[in-house]
Amino acid sequence: MIAISKIYTNCFLIVIGLLCASALIEQVDDTDLVNLITGKESVIVLFTKDKCVECDELQLVVENIQNELKETIGAIVVKAHNSHMVNIYDPSREPSLIYFRRGMPLLYYGDYKEDEIVQLFAENQEPIVKELSDENFEHLTQAATGATTGDWFVFFYSTDCVFCLRLHAVWEAVGARLKRRLNFARVDRLVAGISTAKRFHIVESPEFIFLRQGHVFRYTAKDYTPAKLIEFAETGYRKQTHPESVPPEANSINNFFAGQLQALTNNLQLLMIASVTICIFAAIVVVVKTLAKKKLAKVKKAAKSK
């Protein structure tokens, strides 16, 4: 009987061990992680670190729902422990849960509740934030005409700004929380959105503006956490009792000449060359006119002598 009891005990322990093993999240290194998030599949990454109680709490939650996440949104769930990659996507560091949708990151922001995590990721399988440019900014936002398409919260970034790169997942998190109330966008202020950045007097990266009913509310705080950005969009903007009016959209001709003049002014050497060229051209015109007058005078004199 004792032998049979031991056999049952061992079988029970083996079953428990297998169940625990199946619940564990696959751990990957940074090389594998890069390959995963740059691929075509959706990936959910749990970033953890040593001696982190909160990391253990979130990991337990994710372990319990990883199969549901796979079935619901078809995402691969992995863990990156002590990864340097977390610095790129979450300024607040570990623990961090990020949903990569074909490379576009969405940071989970909220309580560590299983149903809330599943619901948030299931409802945001496509990016929330729209990429705007000079070509479509006014058409989509209708900012100058009173924003008939609704309120817009716009993030101006630049590719040379490392901190801006870390905010893309945060910005998607803010958009996921408020997408039913307002629109979210981002604009590359140094490439596709140069004119739009000048229009709204954007001079650095990152900068955030809230467009509402023909007015511009500027987010001036340096706290770029989801909580603070959400608070500003919900109530914080009201503290600006005298917001700016949305500046009019400059027409394409004015933009062209303004751009050419600015480029010419910024390039002293080009300005000097242009000035010399103009002087030479003027001198040539004077010489040609003088020679023409002399030739005409000779022709008239020769005609009279005949």
Automatic annotation (TrEMBL):
<feature type="transmembrane region" description="Helical">
    <location>
        <begin position="270"/>
        <end position="292"/>
    </location>
</feature>
<keyword id="KW-0812">Transmembrane</keyword>
<dbReference type="InterPro" id="IPR036249">
    <property type="entry name" value="Thioredoxin-like_sf"/>
</dbReference>
<feature type="domain" description="Thioredoxin">
    <location>
        <begin position="129"/>
        <end position="231"/>
    </location>
</feature>
<dbReference type="Pfam" id="PF00085">
    <property type="entry name" value="Thioredoxin"/>
</dbReference>
<protein>
    <recommendedName>
        <fullName>Thioredoxin domain-containing protein</fullName>
    </recommendedName>
</protein>
<keyword id="KW-0472">Membrane</keyword>
<feature type="transmembrane region" description="Helical">
    <location>
        <begin position="7"/>
        <end position="25"/>
    </location>
</feature>
<keyword id="KW-1133">Transmembrane helix</keyword>
<dbReference type="InterPro" id="IPR013766">
    <property type="entry name" value="Thioredoxin_domain"/>
</dbReference>
